[in-house]
Structure formats: C-alpha cells, structure tokens
C-alpha cells in the first residue's frame, strides 16, 4: 500500500484513480493465483495424504485471504481518499468560482458606475465647451460688426480728409495767383470797403471784368471767365481763384435768382450751391460754416429727395437741376457734370 501524494485538486484525483486501477489489476492477478492454487491443491490431493493436503491448502488460503483483506482495506481507504479529495476539490472550485463571480460582478458594477459618471462628466464638459464656443462666436460676430462699422467711418473720414487736402492744395497752388490779383485790385478793394462803410449804392462800386451785379452784390456767373463744369470742391476753388467766395442765398429771392441763372444756361443744366453735410451727416452747412437748414427749408426740393427727408450717405452736396424743374437735390460731391456755383465779392 502506497499513501496518496501531497498534491491537491484535480491532479490528486487523477493519481487516486490510477492507483485504484493498479489495485484492481492486483486483485485480478490474485484471483488468477487462487485458481492456480486450487488446481495445484487438486493435484496434491491425488498424490498426498489428506492431513498434509488440508494443512497446506489452509495455509495458502489463509495467506491469500490475508492479502485480499489488505487489498480490500487499501481499496476502501483509497476510495475514501478519492471521495474526500474530490469533494474538497469541488468545494474549493465552487468557492473559488463564487468568489471570482462576485469579484467580477463587483468589478463590472464599479466599472458601470464609473462609466456612467464619466459619461455624465464628458457630456457636461462637451456642453460647457459648446457654450464657450457659442459665446466666442457671438463675441467675434459682434467685434466683426464693430470693425466693419468703424472701417466705414474711417473710409468716410479719409475721403473727407482727402477732399479737404485737395482744397488746401489747390488754395496753396493758387495763392501766388490770388495774392498778385488782390494786390492789383487793391484800389477796388479799398473802394468796396469804403462803399460798405458809407452804405454807398452798388452803382458806385467798381465791378471787376467778368463779374456782374445783383441786388447790391457783385457776382461771378458759372459760365463767366471761361467757366466749365466742375465738381463741388473745384467749384469752391474757382471762386477763391477769382478773389471771391461762393454766393450764399439768404432768402427766396436769392434762390429764384439762382434758378433763373440755371435756366439761362440752357436745358439739362445744373448749378452747385455752396451747401453740404460732408462735415457731419445730416447737418447741412454753408461754406462759411453757418447753418443752412433754416434757409434751405424755404426753397423748392424734389419730392423724392426733400430736405426734411435728408439725403443718402454718399450724396452730400446740394445743387439745383433743370431736369427737376429747377428744384434742389443732393448729389455726390464728386459729380463733375454740373456748372460751378455762383461766386461773389464781399
């Protein structure tokens, strides 16, 4: 008889099964030996006396029975060992399996909870990021609109500045001409100053060549002295070039005079007036810087472009146009197919 090995688990069960098979083989061999002994006993019975035979047989049988009892005991012990080892292995397997299942279930539950928490956290983060992006987009859109508005204002101011610079450059270029002309006409200037102070009638004033008189005012008509169609700014410069200033209508009679001059020029003609809102949109002023709104409201305006309805942003300068029944309207100051404004010496 050999004891079970120290292994546990399934390896121990296999060893026990192998051992039991070995014992069964031994039992089979023992039975075969018993059969051989019985046959030998029969042979001895034929050749030996009864007492000797019986004694020999009983001895052999006793030894054999002893071996059988020993084998039975070993087999029973082995079966018990196999049963115990198998039961222990199954219990261990069941316990380990139960623990593993519980561990896996706990891990899955924890993982599921973490996954849910992570999902909620990710969704919150995405929502916050989307809100931040939306706020940034709205801010960029607002800044873009502000920049566009400022760009338009800068462009308008730049254009106005260019016009002013052009006027100043023209004035500077013509200073050499104006100054000698004024010096040459110094006698006339002195006479005019004297006439104003003493309220002498215009008939006593000297009227320069090319000029004419209107209601005690010395004026230069648009077509006089080689006059040609000009832009609004060039029209102002023309007056300065001849030692005069733009003619500003002070009442309805003055406006009717401008209408008559325009009609005399011919069909389809137009004359600039010394009024514009280039400095501030919607605030129309004369070239001397005084407000023009009160006087202009007394005059006839085109129904689609009336003074009270104001004017478009790119139409800042006033003119009277034959095609519109000699009524006033606003046009772009750069328009160059209108006759220059009437000038006067003051």
UniProtKB/TrEMBL annotation:
SMART domains: CLECT. PROSITE patterns: C_TYPE_LECTIN_2. Residues 147-174 form a coiled coil. The keyword Transit peptide does not apply. This is C-type lectin domain-containing protein. It comes from the Eukaryota. Residues 231-344 form the C-type lectin domain. Pfam families: Lectin_C. The keyword Coiled coil applies. Keywords: Coiled coil. InterPro entries: C-type_lectin-like, C-type_lectin-like/link_sf, CTDL_fold.
């Amino acid at each position: 008889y050999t004891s079970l090995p120290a292994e546990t688990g399934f390896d121990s069960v296999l060893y026990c099964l192998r051992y039991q098979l070995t014992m069964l083989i031994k039992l089979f061999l023992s039975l075969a030996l018993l059969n051989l002994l019985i046959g030998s006993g029969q042979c001895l019975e034929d050749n030996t006396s009864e007492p000797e035979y019986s004694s020999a047989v009983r001895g052999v049988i006793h030894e054999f029975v002893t071996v059988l009892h020993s084998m039975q005991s070993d087999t029973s012990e082995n079966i018990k060992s196999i049963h115990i080892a198998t039961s222990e292995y199954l219990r261990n397997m069941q316990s380990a399996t139960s623990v593993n299942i519980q561990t896996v279930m706990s891990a899955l539950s924890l993982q599921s909870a973490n996954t849910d928490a992570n999902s909620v956290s990710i969704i919150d983060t995405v929502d916050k990021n989307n809100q931040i992006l939306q706020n940034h987009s709205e801010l960029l859109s607002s800044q873009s609109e502000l920049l566009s508005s400022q760009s338009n204002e800068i462009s308008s101011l730049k254009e106005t500045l260019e016009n002013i610079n052009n006027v100043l450059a023209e004035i500077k270029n013509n200073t050499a001409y104006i100054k000698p002309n004024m010096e040459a006409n110094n006698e006339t200037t002195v006479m005019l100053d004297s006439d104003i102070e003493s309220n002498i009638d215009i008939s006593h004033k000297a009227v320069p060549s090319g000029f004419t008189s209107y209601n005690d005012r010395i004026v230069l008509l648009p077509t006089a002295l080689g006059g040609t169609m000009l832009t609004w700014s060039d029209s102002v410069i023309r007056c300065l070039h001849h030692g005069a200033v733009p003619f500003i209508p002070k009442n309805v009679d003055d406006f009717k005079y401008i209408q008559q001059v325009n009609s005399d020029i011919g069909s389809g003609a137009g004359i600039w007036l010394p009024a514009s809102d280039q400095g501030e949109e919607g605030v129309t002023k004369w070239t001397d810087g005084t407000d023009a709104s009160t006087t202009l409201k007394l005059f006839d305006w085109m129904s689609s472009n009336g003074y009270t309805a104001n004017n478009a942003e790119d139409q800042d300068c006033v003119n009277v146009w034959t095609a519109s029944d000699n009524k006033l309207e606003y046009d772009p100051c750069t328009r160059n197919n209108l006759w220059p404004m009437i000038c006067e010496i003051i």
